[in-house]
Fold this protein.
Amino acid sequence: MENQELKNAGLKATLPRIKILKILENSRHRHMSAEDVYKALLDSGEDVGLATVYRVLTQFETAQLVKSHHFEGGHSVFELEHGEHHDHILCVKCGRVDEFVDEVIEERQNLIAERAGYSMTDHSLYIYGICPDCQKENG
Amino acid sequence: MENQELKNAGLKATLPRIKILKILENSRHRHMSAEDVYKALLDSGEDVGLATVYRVLTQFETAQLVKSHHFEGGHSVFELEHGEHHDHILCVKCGRVDEFVDEVIEERQNLIAERAGYSMTDHSLYIYGICPDCQKENG
DNA sequence: CAATATCGTGAGAATGTTTCGCATTTGGAG
DNA sequence: CTCCAAATGCGAAACATTCTCACGATATTG
């Protein structure tokens, strides 16, 4: 039940929050922008404000229910936390997003941060390219 | 001479372009936002519009004179191309930016893209952390 | 149960960044 | 030196995101 997830995160189980969580869980696309979530809410007949969507997503991120990503082009997306850390590879043509994990890279990053004297808090790696489907389509 | 660099890039050597190129070359900070460049221009008594700064920086990027980066927090920065590809490690406290190159990671990225069937066009890797100086300051 | 403090919300205004439209200016080829 | 496409400055617009605020729902207290 979504209610419990919210309670566990220290958030009251309000309607907008439940709805937004449901949308993130049921969406075919793992990665959704605030606008996407907002549209999905309107489509399902809900009456929430865009500001609330942003507020709730930010709260979810703080509560570590979702993770946000800032892709090129100034557009951010959110995805449910689903256990393992992973990075992203995305198609510059169709916007498709795939995920991957690479232990070697993870380790190197730690090493690099350490070598530079930084205490690493986070990192983001995005690979941009053309996905298999778009390569076919295009001559 | 900047004029020549611009000509080589197929751009007319206009005053704003020359000035902006100079600013990028002389600035102590390698990474500047459009706003930074704009302020620097005003400080040196030039009369350019912010729109022109954006236009010119975009042209420079197309001409591969500069490279842009989109760090977290919705603000982009530009830096002069200076030969080697490199990635960035930045301090979440003071905004300091350092650069690094790691062949192992570069190779792994190619491998990952290939394995996923993508034809890689670009990639961006940012490591976030606390820099040595900020670690000292803070208890 | 009533009085009251707190929280979450929608709507719209505000902010910050980047782009656009258009009249005017300018670089540089002839 | 002249002329024109290219480039520019300006204000407005587009966009994503955040803030403000009054109100309604909820929890707390006596």
Observations:
- Residues 12, 14, 33-35, 50-51, 54-55, 58, 74-76 of chain A lie near DNA strand D (CB under 10 Å from a C1').
